[in-house]
Amino acid sequence: MTKEELIFMVQAIAGVHFDHEGMVSLHARDIQGIVNIGIKMGAAAEREACAKLMGELTCMGNAKECFEVAATYIRARGKE
Fold it and tell me: What does DSSP assign to residue 78?
């Protein structure tokens, strides 16, 4: 998830608006709420990306080999 995507989500969901430098004045509880939203949205996006990879996976052989290929694909996402 890009910085721009995260800012857009926060603005849309939490109703927070950033100035031209990306700054906003918030209370600590508001900041934690925004962080929680970002974490949840980022995790959902990552789950969906991994599910999409698994839908595209074609594997010949036994289940263990398929799972090893899937794990390789998921680990490679961390290097993008």
Answer: T
